[in-house]
Amino acid sequence: MKFPQEHTLQQIATIIDCEYIGDANFPVKGMNEIHVVQNGDIVFVDHPKYYDKALKSAATIILINKRVDCPEGKALLISEDPFLDFNKLTQYFKPFEKSKKLISDSAQIGEGTHIQPNVFIGNNVKIGTNCLIHANVSIYDNTQIGDNVIIHSGTVLGSDAFYYKNRPAGFDKLRSSGHVVIENNVEIGANCTIDKGVTGATTIGEDTKLDNLIQVGHDTVIGKKCLIASQVGIAGCVIVEDEVTIWGQAGIRSDVTIAKGTVLMAQAGLTKSSKPGITYWGTPAQEVRSFLKEQVYLKQIPKLLQKLK
After folding, report:
1. Per CATH, is 2-93 categorized as 3.40.50.1100?
2. Does residue 218 have an active-site annotation?
């Protein structure tokens, strides 16, 4: 998330009431999760396991819960609770904006687009030309939809990221300030849910087709010409490259890459990144020919045991 205007390190420290290390006028342009940070961004880190990764990331301001040596060309914000302070910044720069009607006055809807009854369109939504949005679709704030897009009934675009910190008093939610991007010629089936990014975008690429009842997690990027069948669950921060096919009830864990041309068979459970053009099956998912050979060998076990008697 980029701020409406550039701020100084001292100004940000004042907002969250914390100490800082670095030039008081050090420029701060935005805030992002570590996988999408850029120069001028704040990233937060609250566990020693990830200190080094955060300090060496593209972020130039690190919101951290320990005094450490400040890398050259960067600045630190010293916080007792970086998770909480990151949320404070989200709420300060992008507070929740109430909607007052089904279709917001700030929404932009292109020529030839048809909106069926009971569709909710939030603030600052942009919808391209010749789209068809069926009844009871909910499109949350800041969603961007291209041309020739079809979205079927009951689908929700832009729900919050599923991201929590476990505290003694309960789960603390990380506030979402990102959005959803749907590119041209996409079709999304009924009752799908596509979560917005925590600070960036969840993206569905051009000419990709989604069946009904699909969950796409926060900050996931799905490429072009992908086919995804019903009841697939994709966790957050997944990269799905172009021309991938995912069959029904497959599940994909977070932070993996599904390479171009991959096919995931029904009910596959992908726990690590795939290789291009390979078909996978099973849980944990493996190359389909290897999986089928193993199944044949497993069937021989009773016979082998019988021979040992």
Report:
1. no
2. yes
State the CB neighbour count (10 A cutoff) for residue 117: 8
Q: How far apart are CA 279 and CA 257, in angstroms?
A: 14
- Choosing from 134, 152, 179, 218, the catalytic residue is 218
pLDDT in tens, 157-182: 999 999 999 999 999 999 999 999 99
Superfamily of domain 108-292: Hexapeptide repeat proteins (2.160.10.10)
Q: Which element (helix H / strand E) includes 104?
A: none
**Mean pLDDT for the chain?**
96
User: What is the spatial distance between Cα 108 and Cα 137, in angstroms, rounded to a whole number?
Assistant: 16
- In DSSP terms, which residues pair with 171 in a beta bridge? 166
Domain boundaries for CATH 3.40.1390.10 within the chain: 2-93
Asked if residue 216 lies in contact with residue 198, where contact means CB atoms within 8 angstroms, the answer is no
